[in-house]
Amino acid sequence: MKSILVTGGAGFIGSHLVRLLVNKYPDYRIVNMDVLTYAGNLANLTDIENKENYEFVKCDICDFEKVQKVFLDYQIESVIHLAAESHVDRSIKDPFSFAQTNVMGTLSLLQAAKFAWEGNYEGKLFYHVSTDEVYGSLGGEGFFLETTAYDPHSPYSASKASSDHFVRAFQDTFGLPTVISNCSNNYGSFQFPEKLIPLFINNICNNKALPVYGKGENVRDWLYVEDHARAIDVIFHKGKQGDTYNIGGFNEWTNIDLIKVMIKTVDRLLGREEGASEKLITYVTDRAGHDLRYAIDSTKLKNELGWEPSLQFEEGIEKTVKWYLENKEWMENITSGEYEKYYEEMYSK
Ligand code: NAD
């Protein structure tokens, strides 16, 4: 059995990836390493938790000795690394934890892989999952390419950029076989409701204010999370060692237009009058250092490895809204307690 270590598999994207790999590859053992921060939730994986080819290991990626032990115990042959602190607003409040997890945690995994594999890299791969935010901000025109120079602006993107550099340094210095992908904004089921789409769906349902940064003019490229998981699968199996692949949906939305689509969809599904919830839109002070526009060119991934997004945005949003409406208990379990306090602190000004 080929043992693959997926880090951060109890989070949003990680849980979709773990599900895909466990179901699609019964002859792989998928070892999910996650420390279960506020964003990690084993309830995201109940449908596969008893499968024979799935193992969960509670472990902090920064705990180098424990990580080394996991490499040995499970004879790890490849890593797909997603564990991270992932929310930009939190990185503005507490940059230290972002440097710790995203930079030092990645370094800990790289060192563990290097030691465990002892230069025998046949059949091994360290795949690092990263973000388009490392490229900085675009004006009205153009796209991020794999060759675009890094220009991160938030502590989150600076920490991810740094981790990308460490991964390339291990490839160049030690010959560790690596691959990196940089993806645009994801949406779909099981996303922690501090992120824009689940936050807004939840607030529209509960008639709560919809806090929109600045004038809502920032542009993001949105990709359905299962399409991201499929892209990771394709790159993991067919990507060229040492290469980088951009993943995106060619699907740009200003925040305010996106919010209006969500309002329309939720109102319709709840049987409310069309646009009834637009009154909830509340403009708040813009996020510090807020990048204006991200847009990914994923042509390389399409041309070289044949990946394309499978879902139209309207269909993806409909599926996503329905999922949150049908899984209220999942939402309620994580929006009580600590999260409630955080939410009040962030948005009560
Ligand atoms: P998430 O916040 O939902 O999940 C992160 C997971 O990592 C959680 O399960 C958490 O418990 C775990 N984790 C955090 N610190 C850890 C540590 N020290 N040790 C072990 N586990 C730890 O994040 P996500 O949105 O699923 O993002 C996953 C990855 O994809 C991240 O690396 C992120 O930078 C990248 N990414 C995310 C997006 C997006 O739109 N969400 C887009 C592009 C790239």
UniProtKB/TrEMBL annotation:
Highest rank taxon of the organism: Bacteria
EC top class named in words: lyase
CDD domains referenced in this protein's UniProt entry, alphabetically: dTDP_GD_SDR_e (cd05246)
Keywords for this protein: Lyase, NAD
GO biological process, one term: nucleotide-sugar metabolic process
Residue span(s) of domain NAD(P)-binding: 5-320
UniProt cross-references to NCBIfam families, sorted A to Z: dTDP_gluc_dehyt (TIGR01181)
Protein name (record): dTDP-glucose 4,6-dehydratase
Species of origin: Labilibaculum manganireducens
Lineage, highest ranks first: Bacteria, Pseudomonadati, Bacteroidota, Bacteroidia, Marinilabiliales
